[in-house]
Write a structure and sequence with these properties.
Helix content is 72%, strand content 0%. By secondary structure, the chain is mainly alpha-helical. The protein has a domain at 10-93: 434 Repressor (Amino-terminal Domain) (Orthogonal Bundle). The chain is rod-shaped, with a radius of gyration of 45 Å. 11% of the residues are buried. Keywords: Membrane, Transmembrane, Transmembrane helix. This is Helix-turn-helix domain-containing protein.
Length: 171
């Protein structure tokens, strides 16, 4: 039920007019082809159950014409009763659209942060390896300048292993 429902509300007005004229909700439902659930919601001012406002207006016209009530007066009363719900619904829609917009901003921020992190990692990687290459290239001339001992100069750096001589083999 809606918050604004009271004894003199729109739904109570419809119910009272229907009962004065001797109609049941089932009779109105069969004559107008409006579902019984929708008619009960209309009399209870349960706007959330009902479809869009334009359909509610159509329901009211059919309801009033069926019971012999002036639809224009009923629609004026409907406007007064429905206005707070319409405002609430509009605010809720605006709130939801604001939330969706703020959710769309998060991925762009996340992408920007990820790009920044990747750039920092890439920059650090190249800076580190550039320093390593510099230090290796600076050591190369120093290694060549180190004098070798006399025995080390004549021996090959990777000597081949010598195999033991077998008895009876000629050399």
């Amino acid at each position: 039920m809606s918050e604004g429902q009271n004894k003199n509300g729109f739904g109570e007005y419809l119910r009272h007019q229907r009962e004065i004229r001797g109609f049941s909700l089932e009779e109105i439902s069969s004559q107008t082809r409006i579902g019984l659930r929708a008619l009960k919601a209309l009399e209870a001012e349960d706007w959330e159950i009902l479809p869009a406002e334009i359909y509610i207006r159509g329901f009211i016209r059919s309801y009033c014409e069926t019971i012999g009530l002036d639809p224009n007066e009923a629609l004026i009363r409907f406007e007064e009763a429905y206005a707070p719900f319409r405002r609430h619904k509009t605010e809720k829609i605006q709130e939801m659209s604001y939330e969706k917009e703020s959710q769309k901003e998060i991925p762009w921020r996340l992408i920007a942060i990820l790009i920044l992190v990747i750039l920092l990692i890439t920059g650090g990687y190249f800076l580190f390896f550039k320093e390593e290459k510099k230090s290796a290239s600076q050591l190369a001339p120093l290694i060549e300048e180190i004098p070798l001992k006399k025995d080390e100069a004549n021996t090959p750096k990777n000597p081949s292993p010598t195999l033991p001589k077998l008895p009876g083999s000629a050399e």
